[in-house]
């Protein structure tokens, strides 16, 4: 039922960022990814003899202060997506290949589109929150916008998508397509704290002001299905499994929301005496 | 508003405050005359809280790097009649940054991002500070000891309770799980008002004053014997003295009556890995200077007369830095 693997010492200390641990299973190998300031560490916990992989993502020629690094499944593979202050970097799953760098603008500026969300002079935009949605990659920003970027393997088509694009989208799978923006949306003008995939094309967004919202992909956009007002404490992390959405808060609370058939707060746990800094839900696989 | 560019005020003001505590402790330990010690403290505080400087600090900008911050505090420390040698400045720089590392309880929400910035700033710093070692705040390896027991923060419930709700939002049942900790209910929130107690946090207090029993503002009323005493507050000199104090900055080092202050001479040598030799030319100001002719001559050269002629040069300097 429970087996502990050999402890793997990390070559560098872990940054005090929420959700600073990502897990990837490939065959019988299990990998862990941890961020240290501007560097990534990837260790294989099932092979103690393997050397850790160190990656140093950069944006605009400068090291990227990392907020989160996560493996995201697309339709055919896993991408290693790294968010930080000023941009988003896409790697192959083992960080061996740099696929795309997406630069974020400054807060308040008119920059946007290919450059990412609009920003403002003198204030760096920050990206935090990574999740997969229909084979694409969703990234949250400090303006409250969520960018949905292509994963390079096409995407799952939903009702309302243009039928003429179907064959082209599904067959168009290459690294050049990675990181290209599909669409963006903003439900709240507050910084995004965390994102989570809820299955069936649904995406959960948690905000630093404590709001939580869930939406579903519709064509080249997203429809908001449900939202809960803030309890007064910031969301710190999100996870989803077995039809449940779990939200950790800086107040130490863990709130469990049932997603189907109706979304509502099912349980509230006074889990910790300090902020919840990470969540990982491994369910039965049932939706 | 992106909080990543609003961490500098916390970084600068907290570090500046800790630097003042350290300098104050050393001024007392080395028995610097009270009037000169007060002048040093007031000089530094007046410069640090200069209106233009504070306005610049509060502009949205990234945190200063360690090297840049050291430069700022080195100039700040030398904005008085006091002089620090390189060794003392190095130790001061390490110590005050380590003091900042203890600022771990910052209110949530937007400040959480600032807290992460500050934690990143001090990440991997494990310099041991003797008072931290003695107080049990730091381990022998330089790691900080974070309390896991005791009162939970304000707006946090004690762990263990689970509430269950139905689809209508009604509470249907509760249960408890063993959290395995030793938690207590949250204390009342602190206040920013300097007068009332409690402050609600031990952050920002002067550990040296508590250890040496120098703080006379301890409230010994019933029920408050175990409360952390409030720090001593600097007395305000008034704006009329500020410009005169700032004018000291423009005095050439050779013409300025100064004295050297040794930091951590007897305090932290035992806790450091390597001993640092103090230069022989450093002057130690002693109350009974009459027995040392050289010291007596130096004391006679000390002057507290403000140089009014430097006011205009100071303003020009401030203007040039904007």
From TrEMBL, chain A:
Q: Which SUPFAM superfamilies match?
A: Quinoprotein alcohol dehydrogenase-like (SSF50998)
**Top-level division of the source organism's lineage:** Eukaryota
Q: What is this protein called?
A: WD repeat-containing protein 54-like
* Organism, as annotated: Hyalella azteca (Amphipod)
Automatic annotation (TrEMBL), chain B:
Q: Protein name, please?
A: Protein OSCP1
Q: Which organism is it from?
A: Hyalella azteca
Sorted alphabetically, which InterPro entries does this protein's record hold? Answer: OSCP1
PANTHER family found in the cross-reference section: OXIDORED-NITRO DOMAIN-CONTAINING PROTEIN, PROTEIN OSCP1
Q: Residues annotated as region Disordered?
A: 175-238
Gene Ontology CC terms: cytoplasm; plasma membrane
Q: Which residues form a coiled coil?
A: none
Basic and acidic residues: compositionally biased ranges = 222-238
């Amino acid at each position: 039922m429970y087996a502990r693997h050999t402890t793997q010492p990390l070559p560098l200390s872990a940054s005090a960022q929420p959700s600073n641990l990502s897990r990837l299973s490939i065959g019988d190998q299990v990998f862990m990814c941890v961020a240290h300031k501007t560097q990534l560490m990837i260790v294989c916990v099932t092979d103690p003899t393997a050397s850790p992989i160190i990656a140093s993502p950069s944006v605009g020629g400068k090291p990227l202060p990392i907020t989160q690094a996560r493996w995201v499944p697309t339709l055919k593979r896993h991408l290693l997506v790294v968010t930080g202050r000023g941009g988003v970097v896409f790697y192959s799953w083992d960080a061996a290949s740099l696929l795309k760098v997406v630069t974020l603008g400054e807060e308040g500026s008119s920059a946007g589109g290919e450059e990412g969300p609009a920003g403002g002079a003198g204030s760096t935009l920050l990206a935090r929150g990574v999740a997969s949605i229909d084979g694409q990659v969703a990234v949250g920003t400090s303006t409250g916008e969520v960018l949905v970027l292509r994963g390079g393997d096409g995407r799952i088509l939903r009702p309302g998508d243009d039928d003429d694009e179907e064959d082209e989208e599904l067959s168009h799978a290459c690294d050049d397509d990675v990181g290209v923006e599909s669409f963006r949306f903003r439900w709240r003008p507050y910084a995004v704290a965390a994102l989570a995939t809820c299955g069936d094309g649904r995406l959960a967004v948690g905000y630093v002001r404590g709001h939580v919202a869930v939406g579903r992909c519709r064509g080249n956009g997203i429809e908001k299905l449900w939202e809960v007002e803030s309890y007064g404490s910031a969301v710190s992390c999100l996870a989803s499994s077995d039809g449940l959405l779990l939200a950790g808060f800086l107040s130490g609370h863990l709130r469990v929301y049932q997603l189907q058939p109706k979304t509502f707060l099912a349980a509230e746990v006074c889990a910790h005496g300090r902020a919840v800094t990470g969540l990982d839900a491994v369910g039965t696989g049932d939706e | 508003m992106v909080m990543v560019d609003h961490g500098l005020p916390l970084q600068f003001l907290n570090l500046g405050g800790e630097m003042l505590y350290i300098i104050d402790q050393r001024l007392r330990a080395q028995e610097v005359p009270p009037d000169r010690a007060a002048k040093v403290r007031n000089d530094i505080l007046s410069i640090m809280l200069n209106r233009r400087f504070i306005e610049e600090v509060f502009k949205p900008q990234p945190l200063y790097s360690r090297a840049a911050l050291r430069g700022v505090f080195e100039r700040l420390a030398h904005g008085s009649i006091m002089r620090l040698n390189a060794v003392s400045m190095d130790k001061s720089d390490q110590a005050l940054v380590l003091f900042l590392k203890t600022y771990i309880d910052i209110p949530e929400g937007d400040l959480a991002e600032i807290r992460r910035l500050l934690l990143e700033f001090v990440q991997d710093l494990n310099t041991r500070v003797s008072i931290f070692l003695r107080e049990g705040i730091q381990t022998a390896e330089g790691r900080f000891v974070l309390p896991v027991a005791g009162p939970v923060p304000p707006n946090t419930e004690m762990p263990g309770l689970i509430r269950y709700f139905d689809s209508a939002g009604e509470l249907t049942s509760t249960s408890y799980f063993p959290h395995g900790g030793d938690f207590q209910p949250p204390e009342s929130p602190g206040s920013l008002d300097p007068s009332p107690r409690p402050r609600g946090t031990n952050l920002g207090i002067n550990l040296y004053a508590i250890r040496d029993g120098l703080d006379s503002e301890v409230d010994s009323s019933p029920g408050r014997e175990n409360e952390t005493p409030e720090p001593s507050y600097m007395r305000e000199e008034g704006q009329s003295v500020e410009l005169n104090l700032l004018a000291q900055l423009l005095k050439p080092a050779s013409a300025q009556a100064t004295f050297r202050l040794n930091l951590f001479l007897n305090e932290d040598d035992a806790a450091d890995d390597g001993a640092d030799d103090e230069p022989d030319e450093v002057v130690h100001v002693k109350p009974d200077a009459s027995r040392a002719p050289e010291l007596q001559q130096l004391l006679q050269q000390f002057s507290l007369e403000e140089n009014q002629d430097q006011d205009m040069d100071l303003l020009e300097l401030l203007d040039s830095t904007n």
